[in-house]
Design a protein that fits this description.
The protein is of the alpha+beta class and 253 residues long. It contains five helices and twelve strands. A twelve-stranded mixed sheet has the order 7-8-9-10-11-1-2-3-4-5-6-12. The longest helix has 14 residues, at 18-31. The two termini are 23 Å apart.
Length: 253
């Protein structure tokens, strides 16, 4: 499932309050020098258009090491797809069919499948920020308005600043709320209100498209076990060129 919401359009440079710039600077200091990163990425998506409504959640354990080593797998205790690159090869393993594919490694973390597939959130979101050389550039991109809503928010017992960004996406204004830890500069939560991007719907029902991305158990620049990015095929697993379910899809008329 992917949450890339279209190509961003250029917007006039927004005036950014000094307090917001201060927190942007803290975010840069926190992530721009990160060489390794570990976190549990929690996503929740709520979509409603007229009488149609859906909610979903996804929890992924993420580990990466620059420039192109990455591991992403289900963190909720159920078997899910494993995606791992050790810098020399990339492996994608699907437990439901007990099959795996080996392909060349990504050129960099930005180009890796976990980042591009949407399994770790929306491009331009928190996961993407963690791998940026200058995260504030991501935050400023296509910015229409920035404001500091509060400096006294508490997220899981940690004092946070609440910053609201309005961005121009596909010539529509979307709202992003981010919560920055005041002592560390880490972004602990991002909330995307994307309802402006929805097609016109039944005015009698809800009109909502909200994505919340949170990172728990974050570790930055911690020493990683030497085998963390190595894949060992489970018993009975079969190496394939294409997953069996992909072959079935191709046969459909």
């Amino acid at each position: 499932m992917a949450f890339v919401l279209g190509t961003m359009q250029n917007a006039p440079a927004a005036q950014i309050p000094k307090k917001v710039l201060h927190y942007f600077s803290m975010v840069d200091q926190t992530y721009s020098n990160a060489e390794t990163y570990e976190a549990v990425v929690n996503l929740s998506i709520e979509l409603a258009l007229g009488e149609r409504e859906s909610k979903s959640t996804l929890s992924t354990r993420l580990t990466w090491k620059k420039p192109n080593m990455i591991l992403a797998h289900n963190a909720s205790g159920t078997s899910g797809t494993v995606m791992v690159s050790n810098g020399k090869k990339y492996v994608k393993y699907v437990p439901n069919v007990n099959e795996y594919i080996i392909s060349p490694p990504p050129a960099n973390l930005q180009d890796s499948e976990p980042m591009q597939s949407g399994v770790l959130g929306q491009l331009g979101g928190l996961t993407n920020i963690t791998i940026s050389d200058k995260p504030s550039d991501n935050l400023k991109e296509n910015l229409v308005k920035a404001s500091l809503k509060s400096e006294s928010e508490t997220i899981r017992g940690i004092a946070c600043a609440h910053i609201q960004l309005v961005k121009n996406l596909r010539n529509k204004e979307v709202v992003i709320d981010l919560f920055v830890e005041k002592n560390t500069g880490r972004i602990t939560r991002m909330i995307f209100d994307n309802k402006a991007l929805l097609p016109p719907g039944d005015n009698q029902g809800k009109h909502m498209f909200t994505l919340v991305e949170e990172h728990d158990n974050v570790k930055i620049n911690s020493a990683l076990p030497p085998d963390v990015f190595e894949f060992s095929a489970p018993r009975g697993a079969i190496k394939v060129d294409n997953f069996s379910f992909q072959k079935k899809i191709k046969k459909l008329p």
